[in-house]
Description:
Helix content of chain C: 25-40%
Organism (chain C): Microvirga subterranea
Number of domains of chain B: 2
Mean pLDDT of chain C: 90
GO molecular function, one term (chain C): heme binding
CATH architecture of one domain in chain C: Sandwich
Strand order of the largest sheet of chain C: 3-2-1-5-8
Order of helices and strands of chain B: HHHHHHHHHHHHHHHHEHEEEHHH
CATH class of the largest domain in chain B: Mainly Alpha
Order of helices and strands of chain C: HHHEEEEEEEEEEHHHEEHHH
Number of strands of chain B: 4
Low-confidence stretches of chain C: 4-15
Structural class of chain C: alpha+beta
CATH architecture of the largest domain in chain B: Up-down Bundle
Main location (chain C): membrane
CATH topology of one domain in chain C: Immunoglobulin-like
Strand order of the largest sheet of chain B: 1-2
Oligomer: heterotrimer
Number of strands of chain C: 12
CATH class of one domain in chain C: Mainly Beta
Number of helices of chain B: 20
Membrane topology (chain C): Multi-pass membrane protein
Radius of gyration of chain B: 25 Å
CATH topology of the largest domain in chain B: Cytochrome C Oxidase, Chain A
Largest interface: B-C, 92 and 92 residues
Strand content of chain C: 15-25%
CATH superfamily of the largest domain in chain B: Cytochrome c oxidase-like, subunit I domain
Subcellular location (chain C): Membrane
Strand content of chain B: under 5%
Shape of chain C: elongated
Structural class of chain B: mainly alpha
Amino acid sequence: MNRIVAPAGIFLLLVLGACEREERAFRADPIATETEEKIALVPLSPGSGPPVEHRTGKGKEYEDNAYHVAQGKRLYTWFNCNGCHSNGGGGSGPPLMDDRWIYGGQIENIVQTIREGRPNGMPSFRGKVPDDQIWELAAYVRSMSGNVAKDVAPGRNDDMHPRPAENREPDSPPVAGGSIPPSAEMPQ
Amino acid sequence: MSDVLATHEPVAPIGRKSEAYAPVNPRELRDNQIDGPELTTRLAKTWGTAPGLLGALSTVDHKIIGRRYITTAFMFLFLGGLSAVFMRLQLARPENGLMGPDLYNQLFTMHGTTMMFLFGVPIGEALAVYLVPLMVGTRNIAFPRLNAFSYYVYLFGGLMIWIAFMLNIGADTGWFSYVPLSGPEYSPGKRVDFWAQMITFTELSGLAVAVEIVVTVLKQRAPGMTLDRIPLFVWAVFVNSFVIIFALPAVMIASTMLILDRLVGTHFFNPAEGGDALLYQHMFWFFGHPEVYIIFLPATGFVSAIVTTFARRQAFGYLPLVLSLIATGFLSFGLWVHHMFTVGLPQLGASFFTASSMLIAIPNGIQIFCWIATLWDGRPVVKTPLLFVLGFFFIFVAGGLSGIMLASVPIDTQVHDTYFVVAHFHYVLIGGNVFPLLGAIYYWFPKFTGRMMSERLGKWNFWLAFIGFNMAFFPMHITGLMGMPRRVYTYQAEMGWGTLNLVSTVGALILFTSFVLFLINVITSLRHGMMAGPNPWESGTLEWAAASPPHPQNFDRIPVVTNREPLWAERSAIPVATGLSVDNRELIVSTVTEARADLREASPEPSLWPFIAAVATAVAFIGSIFTPWAVLWGGSAVGIALIGWFWPKGAKEDES
Amino acid sequence: MHRRLACVFLILPLGACQGWQSALDTHGPAASALEALFWTFLSVLGFVWVLTMGAVALSLRRRRPEGEDPLVTNPRRESRMGWTISGAVALTVVTVLTLTGLSYASQKHLFEKRDDVLTIKVTGHQWWWQVDYEDSQADKRFTTANEIHIPVGEPVLLKLESSDVIHSFWVPSLTGKMDLIPGRQNTLQIQADREGSYRGQCAEFCGWQHAHMGMLIVARPKAEFDGWRDNQIRDATAPQTDERKRGEQIFFSKPCVMCHQVRGTSAGGKVAPDLTHVGSRQYIAAGTLPTTRGNIAAWIVDPQSIKPGAQMPVIKIEPDELDPLVSYLEGLK
């Protein structure tokens, strides 16, 4: 019995995985609504127990989908993110392809950063960029440091290449700390 | 290796001694020492396939593999046809909401890919694998294990792309997958990678079969089958195999460069880093145009065989027919640019390809004229196979002539990439391949199965196919001229293409019905068809000398060929060459031009290794879609399988 | 006239020659020459086809007596057939050579280009056309999208480029197609002999919305064309009515400005069609919808159900915001 169930299960997983990864969701459902994510920047919280978090799961939907990540890559230049963050190496804005995250490296953190803006120059794009595109951008930003699956991360673009494409980027999971500008440091 | 063949005349009163002679090893049982049913049974045991799953997987019998090839290719034909039906339903009305662009693009990609790579090339080779050894009078194809391997590789490649399609990873950039659309920037995910690896699978198997055919034809012909006695079908697939050998590597390289661009970030097609998008088109069409002839050439073989048999006259103009096959093969490499007339090439260069494209009309014209002459001077018996060949004349000539229009640079700039082109190449490919192929199946079905197909259903099949085809594709000429581009998932009502598209859709449904009828005919005839003798059509070529269906050894004794149509020349009994071992797999290797019996050569035994090697190859190819390292570890698995495959058996021959 | 006759004869019930995107309904010198060449080829080749089919039909008569040995041949008949076939082959060669010559002659004539004429750069995007009118004077250059106006009776040179994948520029009533290939520039000369709007469409598969990548060529007398051009060069006029003013505010508070440009305002996006004079164009969404209030509204509310996969996202918009926004855009004449 197990000999049938196990391969069938694996096959089913593959099927579901494939469907999710390759789906081209042109039109988000429900349309243009903003999700409410609560995510902690640090593991500290008042009282006992970890901070209260709430994720809608939308991040996974975007991070695990090749089309969304590729769209994010297009929007990254279209919306001039590279104006400050360059190709990921950073310019007047911090680098995005390393493992240091000032405001958290989870996709929900990045969505928050894009949506609300951050001190010292990062503007808020709420209302200017539709929420779904913010998720796409955030998913792409994750892929720049090798934090989405390799078969989802985009390949090279048809232009000059200052760095390897996202699907060849070594994994660099977010680490705490790093060089944080004084303005963004936790109050002592 | 020094053992040379003896010729003998044990039963038949007529027989000719071949030049080669050597003393017979007394310890080994030879086919001149026994006779009749005993000989048949013992040979069948020697050449037979073991029962059970392992036996089936390790078989090297060209007839079993050939049958699988044919069945699989037809399965893909049906899948491709089904995807076409869905496309036609979507296009039946303007702004139809049956499906969105994402599914439509996957469907037309699967349709083109399946028809070209999984049906068009393999079907010609499939029939060749089955028929060539029979027609040249040998016992098995050359490199039979490679043959088994090639089938599994083809099967795995085809299954891979269709399973991927069902998992929503269907390639969606067309059967040509032009960069940059198919490149890493505009085709995210793994869809195109599956397409590119499917190419590697099918082309690998195609090349393997081509090599087998070439060697079989050159070295395994029955004694006496000099170059000018080779059946026209064999000539056709022989030339075809050379075209395959020279054309397929181009597309394998193109698809490999594509997957390298996508997977490891090379810049072959990236103009910003010095690559070139047009490079891909050149490489693709350097394969892509000969591809058309790869699909067409075997069909000329079917036509020659059917025309000769049903005109009751030997083919008129054997030499011009063979020479035009060869000329077509050569010229087919000189016209690829006519697929690229609108990319902005220098005018003089483009017009050179106009000339060469029109030139190929000449050898094709010669072939058509010779066939008509054969019918003219014969006594045509209009049975279903000939009916399909007549349909071929009607449709293929029309398609060929519209091809002359497309060869002209100025006209092509208007009709390129429109439904006019769609109409043209369906006239050429369905007319030039599928109609003769259906005729060929009706013709050789008794040989494959021992039973005749129903003539009545066959006539229905033909007329439905003929009417449905013309109804589906003739209007496309006009929609194309009215401005409808190819590969659009819908069109606006005010364009005025609605009625014609509806007619096309109805035609496509009729055409599909005719194929369902064909399938019904095949299935019912398999069980209830009239029993066919060895030669139900009274044809002249050697395959009809074998039993229907043929015994595992094909022939009890290797025939000696005295005429281009041996069965017509030797009415009473075919002379034979004897001296081959009964208990070991042996066949005759003959000289290239004169086909003098030269050596007795051992033919490989069944083995499971080709299957294992094919599985390892599949793992390596599919793995490489996800990581380049798969080439490394997959390669070692293939290496291990190959070591098993070629492990020395300690046979006398290997040691001498 | 002969054209129409031929048409009726060949494709009787279908009336295919008409249509605003038809290669057989031509209004430019190039397309007309191509059409003539097409009919020449068709008549010659049609004749060849009829001859061949006649031969096939005749060949089906039974000439051989029943039971005759299929290997027996009659040398006299054999040689007669040989000569007939040689004749047919010779005729084929002559036909093919003649057609090649004809083709080459008209090709030379067709692709002659002049470079002292009005030059327009057309850039293909997924799935729309960017149109830049070039001029030696900087203040005469301007950008528009999906609609190309040209003066009647004058040749116009198109420079064809692509920003992403390969597209193909095809306006069958005026001339044959030419591809737009990233990393290259192709040129194509068009000329319209008659006033009118001619539809064109992308002819090289370019992705999901290949089917909806249309364009319009509007040919007008020189004076009208100049008037149109002067208007296009101008920046967008500021809204006068309250509704349009509110619409402008909504436009600037929404994601629209991230991608679209309206010259004369702070909306400076460069990745989507220029909207400075969108109200003056006959179609929106690259030849997909006629420019009406209803269509503009439908396109803004749900572009993804009209052109699934297009780059225009579905945005959040309140019901009472739609009317002013549409008024604003419609008024951008």
